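chain below, 89 aa
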Amino acid sequence: MIIYRDEKFRGIGVPKKTPKNKTKSHAVLIKEKGKIKLIRFGQQGVTGAGKNPRTKKEKIRKASFKKRHEKNIKKGKTSAAYWSNLVKW
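prediction:
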């Protein structure tokens, strides 16, 4: 258990939900150049891929997200888009 800024995390690289945060739905700790960094990602209240990701509408939403954030996702673990893609989409 890691405590960072009064929040508890299971470990580095393990995302968690943040229901008390006003704007972001998830948070994760990463280690970059020997320092621990907090990354918040995901819009609060938005489901990402939706309840049934197999429908045509949800497939289009998913493809649009991945295309729109393609460059940021490629930045790797230091990018909020990377974690959002991994967890929510």
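Residues 2-87 form one domain. The helical segments are 56-68, 70-74, 80-87.
thats it, cya
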